[in-house]
Structure formats: structure tokens, C-alpha cells
Amino acid sequence: MTETHGTPAPDLKIIETRVYRGPNIWSYDPAIHLVVDLGSLENFPSNTIPGFTERLLADLPRLDQHHCSRGRKGGFIERLHEGTWLGHITEHVSLQLQQEAGHDMRRGKTRQVKGSPGVYNIIYAYADEPVGLAAGELAVRFVNNLVQPDPAFDFTTELEKFIKQAERTAFGPSTQAIVDEAVSRDIPWIRLNKASLVQLGQGVHAKRIRATMTSETGSIAVDVASDKDLTTRLLASAGLPVPRSESVRTVEDAVSIANKIGYPVVCKPLDGNHGRGVCLNLQDADAVREAFPIAAEQSRRGSVIVENFVTGKDYRCLIINGRMEAIAERVPAHVVGDGIHTVAELVDITNADPRRGVGHEKILTRITINNAARQLVRDQGYELDDVPPEDVMVKLTLTGNMSTGGISIDRTWEAHPENVEIAEEAARMIGLDIAGIDFICPDITQPVRETGGAICEVNAAPGFRMHTNPTIGEPQYIAKPVVDMLFPPGAVSRIPIVAVTGTNGKTTTSRMISHVFKGMGRKVGMTSTDGIVIDERLVIRQDASGPKSARMVLQNPRVDFAVFEVARGGILREGLGYERNDVAVVLNVQPDHLGLRGIDTLEQLADVKAVLVEAVPRTGYAVLNADDPLVRKMRRKCSGQVVWFSMAEPGSEVRDYIEGHCRRGGRAVVLERSDLGDMIVVKHGRRSMQLAWTHLLPATFGGRAMMNVQNAMAAVAAAFAAGAPLHDIRQGLRTFNTSYYLSPGRLNEIDVDGRSVIVDYCHNAPAMRMLGDFVDRLGESLSASSEVGRPSRIGVIATAGDRRDDDIRELGEVAAQHFDVVIVREDARLRGRKRGESAGLVQAGVRAAMEGGARCRRVDVVLDELEAVRFALERSNPGDLVVLCVDQHQSVLAELESVSHLAQAGARSGDEGGDPDFVQPDEEITEETPRELA
């Protein structure tokens, strides 16, 4: 036994909770993530707490079925006796609590947080999010109670409350049966509300169900089925057996019709359901008068149907897509005497059946004793306190509805073919794709036209549980024909998904891929940091690189192709917003966002981005940057095929590896260099296919913007893997440019009164290196064409406040190598820092580089973004290069357009006066005190 000191205290507590709704860094499947602190319990494994394991198993005996790491039943019990920590125990309790509620969850893991003694990550699977979260919270309270009992905590009561909560939020049996069938066919599904509205499939292929109503169910058919009087008349017009009936609105009219039809009669609501308000076997006018208000109360329109009482057994025929799929005999709620117990006691014994629940949550419903039940028992010669003789049936309701406590007997293979034909014809007459036809007849095995009987009701959205879980007989797998109807064999349920991640270049690459497929006529849904775009329309303007945005695209019925920009934050926060992606693109892994959410190293950041690669199926592709060592390692995590892209020179180690990959039948996109320029080449097996000269692609600025050359190569690889022909890929890249309309905020070039202004999103040191390389190339070109001397390069830069101090300073150091003047601003969102703090760190980085001989000769701080833009334009002259690294590109572009229009208006009015604050390009710039603006 482990040596411990002191007394264990109930210190276990949850310090953070996350819900992963898709593949994540811990699991391929949805999972709950609890970060817990054991406190003093870190020193007390299970074998050191007297009686702990015994009390645990007494309350949750089925924990003995858990395998744990031993891989066999009872493995977890062995761990308990050997001594395991209470975080691990909480994981298993969370899983078992869900099993107690009917959710068969088995996957989980517990890992200690590095460098934090007593703090653990607990990850476990869930089927229903609220239930999974409640299981974790109850597990923590339960484990603490086992450590030190709390008189106010009663586990039996808490468990019952938990199970009832699970029943309230769970799908009903009908919805669950359809969802399970869809999952078995690899059809994706999304729950659209807290009830039973579910989407099956994605985008343009999506279908919807609500319980057993589908997107194919006609609203007119539902209205007709809801009007029992109209239903009866339509069926009668088709020559189908129906009872004589009429609709009435007053008691006296009901009595009059009953006298006309002849007793016994039935009174039921015109548009009721679940058998509510149905009064059977009314023998005289007084009975009709008593029944009328009961039926009228359940009728939304206030009308009541009076019809002749058809004697016989109650059968439900389920018709799906015009065919009979199941028949169940419904037996009204009842008890059978044993000569010992009273009627009330027999009801309690019957309700103790674990298959019975409240409402539709379970396969049977508990029997409720109400005034109608008491009267019915009295009519049979008993009171609730009487003991009926052995084997005597005492009815508690007259209707056989499952919702009133009835049971079902499967009769699918016993029905006479003529009765089957009648039921199918009734569904066709009403127009329902899924219909429940209620037959009353002596025997379903005999033709009802000969034995007597009638269709008493046609139901839209019939319940499935009497067929999927009959009390007696074989279950019928009726979800199969429903899914067959929605998705016939061979039908497509998924849309292609291309997911793009990386530290830099995600948005531009996503836009390039989207543009290629738009040119092919696809209705593309794209998410990015700028918003959600559906078929070229920006429908939501916000940072949409997270999982919720992805789900919004997959719910859109116009989308037949999806391109998702996937950011690190969304993966860490709640995983991917979908189950898998057909093509995963990983551009690079650079030192950005480190020190956030427990990601402190590049290797950890690479593991986060590799979630996309792990979400590639065997039939999919991972497009990986062979030039990045961390991205290159991700090939081991890909179940599908790898497509490489690389800018490496021929003969290099990377290119040699790629050539070997292609010789084995693989795919790659490489750059072939010659005196004529750089050519993007697609390789597949031993074939090499020239795609385009980089200098002819508008987004590359004549081949100068090497980051967009790399982005274009990634887009080519992704589009090729997704099945796009080469000529469509070529045309897409030749027509994609960095104008504000196609690529807002990414290398937008604007002429502002003779100044070349570049607007970009660059916000970290690696991106600044690539932008700086572009600035150097573009600056050399401008110098060669300038007639007034060497143009100045002015950069407005900033980074997010939640980056590490060293990373922020590095941004300034890199920018100083490429700009003559650096103006430091700040984002509106400070992300935990004080105003001016992050700008001060950037400025310090610039000055450090200046002391080391960097190109920069001046640094200013202008915190407000628009003020910084105006300041940069004031400091520049015509012919200069001004690079604006912005956060709110819409506001900046509006400001630049305004300045440009004012300059044009001034030129037209003959105003040629110079601004005294302009600095001449050949004038030496000296460092001045930074200008600080609030």
C-alpha cells in the first residue's frame, strides 16, 4: 500500500470544462474534457482510502465490466485495488453514469497536466452533450462523497435525477432508430434543436426528419391526416372500409348523430393524437353527453367525431414509401390478477418494469391511474383496492395506444394480403410517405371485408417503438426503409470538404481553392477569418474559422462543395465542426499563438494542426508542405494518400524524397525553375504536367510574392486531389487576383495619389519575413522604374496582445530589416494587455534591430489603426511603397478610398501645394521622439 500522511479530504474540483463536438487533439470522436484539481487527494490513490472501492462498487456495481488499460473485463477493478488516482476514477464514473442513462459510452482517458501536480485532463465520450456534462459534474460530487460522506448527498436520488434529465434531452425511440440507421450507413447527421429535428446528410444532399416526419412529407397530407372527418370521407370515396361518422361541434349534435348511426358509438377529437380524448363503446345518449367535453378538450378546432363503434382488436399498420413494413397488435394498458395483490399494487409492479418510462423516452410507458381508469376498473366490477382472481385481466384504458401504457405484439408476417393492400391504399389516398394506419378488426389474418372491421384512423408521424421494440414478438428494423426512401442505394449524402490550416496563408489558400471550384460551377460554401461565403455571397461578416461556422455551411441547402479555413483556436476550443474532411491542407507550422491554452512548443502546435490530417479517411488526401519539417512528419498520421507541395530545388533532399514518392504512384506539386521563370508542375506517378508560370498568376505580383506562389501550389494540390481537371485549376489561378473583391485584406494593392499601397493581414514574425521578401522584390522593381530617386518603404505593423513578449519583439526586429520607416499601431482588442504595451514591445524590437544595423531609420508609435494609416500616408511621397498590416481591413480600405478621392479632387482644382510634413526620399531620416496618439 502506498505510504500517505494525513487524512483525505473531498478536494476534487473541476477547474475547466470543454466540449469537443468533432475530432480533436484527444480523440477522433466527440468528447467532454474536464480539467480537474485533486488537491490533497493527489496523495491518496484509491487503495489508501479505507472502504473506498467497496463503497464505489456498491453504488455502481457495473463498473466491474470496465476493461480499462488491461483490455479485459474487471481490469478497472484490478486498478482500483492496486491503487489509481481519483481523476482516473472520475473518468470511469462519468462513463458509467451515462451507461446507467442508456448511453453506451466506453472511451476515455486521463492524463496529468505536465508541470502541474494534482491537475489532470479527463477526457471521455458522450452521446448527448448536456447528459455528458451532467455526468462529469455528478461524478466529481460522487467521488468526493466516497472520500468523505456528506449527509446532504444521496447518490440514489441524484442518480434518478440524472437519468430523468437524460430522458428529457434524449431522442425518442423513433428518431433514435433513424439516426442509428443513418450512422450505420456513414450518413452524417446534425441535431438542429433540442427536440427531434435532425438533418441527415450535408449541404445540397441534406434531408430532415422530425421524429417520423421527413422533408419528403407533404404538408397537405399532414393536414388531411389531422382532420379525421376528411380522412374518413377520402378513404370512403376510395371504397376502403371505414366506420360511419360525422363531425359535430355541440353536445346535442353529437347525441343526434349517435342516434342516427346507432349505438354503441365512439367520440374522439377531430384532430387529436396519442389516443387522448378518445371515448369508446358509448352505449347511450348520456354516455355521449359525458364523453363530448372530454373529446372536445383535446381538439384544437373544437370539433368532435362521432362514429359507430367497431369491435375487434386494435392493429397499427406502418406504411413507408407506399409499402407495408410492419404491423403491431396494440393491447390496452391492463394488469393480470395473481390472487394476491390489489389492482393498484399490480399497477405498481407493472410500472416497475425498467422498460417503462415517462412519455416516449423508453420502449414502454408507465400506466397512469386517473379518473377514467378508476371508472373503467369499476365498470369491470372491481375497485383499485380489490384483489382480482388469478389470470383475470383488468383493463385500465380502452385504447391500445403505447402512450397510455399499452403493450404491442408483432403481427407483421401474419396479416392477410388483402388487409395489407387496403392499408397501403389508405396511405396513398392521404398522400403520406410514412403513415400509421389503425385497423380495428377481429383478426388481421382474415380479410376485413369479410370478417368486418374498419380503418379508424390514419396517423402522420407514427411512432416506431411498438415495431422496433414490441413487448412480444420479433422487432422490425423499420428505420431501414425510411433511410432507403431518403437516400436510395447509391445516393450521395456528403459534400466534398477541403480543410485548410497552418500558421500563415490559410485565408488566401482557401480563397484560391474556392475560386477554382466556383469557376467549375460548384456552389461553394467557404469559411475564413473574414466570414462565411455561400456561392460568392458574404452572408456573415466575422471571424468564421471555427467549428460552428463549418456546421453552418454544412446545413446550407445550396452548398455542394465546402472549403474551411481551420484555426488553431477552434480546434483547441471544441474540435472540428464536422466528422472528417476529404482533403486536409497543412501549409506550415510557425512560432505563433504559443503560450496559449497549454500550447507552448512548436511540436505541440503541430499536433493541434495535425487533427485535420487525422480526420482524413482512407479515400481522402492530405496536402502537406514538404519544406516544413513539422508538417512533413504529419504524413504518419494520415489514413489516406499524401500529396506533397514543395518549392525546394531539384537535387535537394526534399525533392529527392518527393521524386521517390511519385515513382511509387504518389502525387506532388513542385516548382521547376528556368531562365524563363518558375513553372508550377503537377506530378502524378511518372507523369509531369506543367500547370502555369508563376509570373503569369496575378496573385503572385509577377512572381515576386513568393508566399502566394506557395499558397497557389497548395491550392493546386488540394484542387487536384479533390478531382478538379488541370485546365480548370489553371483557369482558376489565372483569374484569381488579390483585389479587394476577391481577397479582401490580403496583399491588396491600391494606388493612392501616386503611392503604391499594399494592405495585408501580416501579424507575426514568420509572415513578416515572407512579406519582407516581397517588399524587397517589389521595392527593387519600383526603384528601377523611379525617376526621382530611391523610393522609401514605410510599414505600419502590429500583432495581437496575447502573443509572447519575445514573439512580439521579434516582429519588430524582422520588420526593421525591410522598411525605412516603421509605424507601430495596436489592434482594438488588446487581449489582456494594457493600452500601448504590445506596441512598446514591437517598438523595442525595431530599435534593437536598428542598433544592429538594420535598414530602418525611424520608428513611430501611433496606436489607433486609422490614425496610423493617415500618419503613414503623410510621411510618404508619390512613388513610395506603403505597406499597411491591418486588423479591420474594411475601415482601412474605406479610408484609403476617401484619401484617394480627396487627392484627385485637389488635383482637379489646381492645388499643387506640398504637405510640409512629407519627407523627401533622398533626405536623411533621423530618429525622433515617437508620436503618441490616444
TrEMBL record:
<dbReference type="InterPro" id="IPR004101">
    <property type="entry name" value="Mur_ligase_C"/>
</dbReference>
<feature type="domain" description="ATP-grasp">
    <location>
        <begin position="232"/>
        <end position="487"/>
    </location>
</feature>
<dbReference type="InterPro" id="IPR036565">
    <property type="entry name" value="Mur-like_cat_sf"/>
</dbReference>
<keyword id="KW-0067">ATP-binding</keyword>
<dbReference type="Pfam" id="PF08245">
    <property type="entry name" value="Mur_ligase_M"/>
</dbReference>
<comment type="subunit">
    <text>Homodimer.</text>
</comment>
<dbReference type="InterPro" id="IPR011761">
    <property type="entry name" value="ATP-grasp"/>
</dbReference>
<dbReference type="Pfam" id="PF02786">
    <property type="entry name" value="CPSase_L_D2"/>
</dbReference>
<keyword id="KW-0547">Nucleotide-binding</keyword>
<dbReference type="InterPro" id="IPR005479">
    <property type="entry name" value="CPAse_ATP-bd"/>
</dbReference>
<dbReference type="InterPro" id="IPR036615">
    <property type="entry name" value="Mur_ligase_C_dom_sf"/>
</dbReference>
<dbReference type="InterPro" id="IPR011810">
    <property type="entry name" value="Cya_phycin_syn"/>
</dbReference>
<dbReference type="InterPro" id="IPR044019">
    <property type="entry name" value="Cyanophycin_syn_N"/>
</dbReference>
<feature type="compositionally biased region" description="Acidic residues">
    <location>
        <begin position="912"/>
        <end position="927"/>
    </location>
</feature>
<dbReference type="Pfam" id="PF18921">
    <property type="entry name" value="Cyanophycin_syn"/>
</dbReference>
<protein>
    <recommendedName>
        <fullName>Cyanophycin synthetase</fullName>
        <ecNumber>6.3.2.29</ecNumber>
        <ecNumber>6.3.2.30</ecNumber>
    </recommendedName>
</protein>
<comment type="function">
    <text>Catalyzes the ATP-dependent polymerization of arginine and aspartate to multi-L-arginyl-poly-L-aspartic acid (cyanophycin; a water-insoluble reserve polymer).</text>
</comment>
<dbReference type="InterPro" id="IPR013221">
    <property type="entry name" value="Mur_ligase_cen"/>
</dbReference>
<feature type="region of interest" description="Disordered">
    <location>
        <begin position="904"/>
        <end position="934"/>
    </location>
</feature>
<comment type="similarity">
    <text>In the C-terminal section; belongs to the MurCDEF family.</text>
</comment>
<keyword id="KW-0436">Ligase</keyword>
<dbReference type="Pfam" id="PF02875">
    <property type="entry name" value="Mur_ligase_C"/>
</dbReference>
